[in-house]
Amino acid sequence: MILDIRLRNVLSRLPSSFDHLSIPQFYGEYGKPETVPIEREDGKPLTSSISAKAVIPVSLGKSAELFTLADAEILLSDYGEAFAPASEPRRAEDSHIPLSYRPLEARFEPEGALTQSADIWSLAVSIWEIIGMRMIFSDEFRTEDDVVCQYVDALGPMPRKWWERWEARHQFFNEDGSPKEGREIWPPALDDAFEDFVQKYRRRFESGEFDKEESVALVDLMRRMLAFEPEKRPSAGEVLGWGRARSWI
User: Tens digit of pLDDT for each residue in 27-74?
Assistant: First the structure.
């Protein structure tokens, strides 16, 4: 089953007693919902697709920083975009994964089938975001071509068939594949990005720096999971086996 990462939520499971509260009891315990008006910055009226109010999240009395492993009864929810490719084929161009998590086949093989290997790419980006202090790729104020450029900067040349199909490549690279002079190269190559985006910040915030052996292993796993060609990425079982072999799972 493929899970569109845009709609995949990781939650902490609430106590079973929570389900038995009536609405008045819930309001008595946690207060009534608080709302704030939604307004456009330009002062224009909202469109019909936008709610006039937003509900402020309720506080359940414990901040995330105080959670321990014993509290973390993880619950995966919202499978609105999940599908089983064997019984419900979906084309890569129909992927709803955000740009910064979306593998290249969705761009350059749009009529091909979206397979589980797409999730492996998205999982690698998610793992990086969890262990580091910043994402490896970003789609904030970026175009689809900007994100493709980030992939090449960090991971190296894409397959020739895709490179030649990428009409915007001349905005970012010379014909030999080298970056255009004066262009910001971001992110840096994967090894350097691991040092800059993960290790440096973990040292600064004293959140547990990875030792040399762990760093080499993690970068190797990321590189394999972020292989441009989907058939070269490991399966979910292989990724789990990799983690168990290092007692990380």
Answer: 898 889 999 999 988 999 988 778 899 998 887 767 767 777 777 676
What are the tokens at 225? 């999971």
Question: In DSSP terms, which residues pair with 44 in a beta bridge?
Answer: none
CATH classification (class only), 88-249: mainly alpha
What is residue 10's three-state secondary structure? strand
Residue-wise pLDDT for 165-178, tens only, equals: 999 999 999 999 99
Which run of H or E residues covers position 116? helix 116-131
- Domain ranges in the chain are 1-82, 88-249
Give CA–CA dist 219/22, Å, rounded: 50
Pick from 79, 156, 82, 159: which is nearest to 116 by CA? 82
> 109-118 contacts: CB < 8 A, separation 24 or more?
113/85, 113/89, 114/2, 114/85, 114/90, 115/2, 115/85, 115/230, 116/2, 116/85, 116/235, 116/236, 117/230, 117/231, 117/233, 118/2, 118/92, 118/230
Q: Is the pTM of this model over 0.85?
A: no
The pLDDT tens digits of the residues spanning 75-101 come to 666 656 778 888 888 898 888 888 999
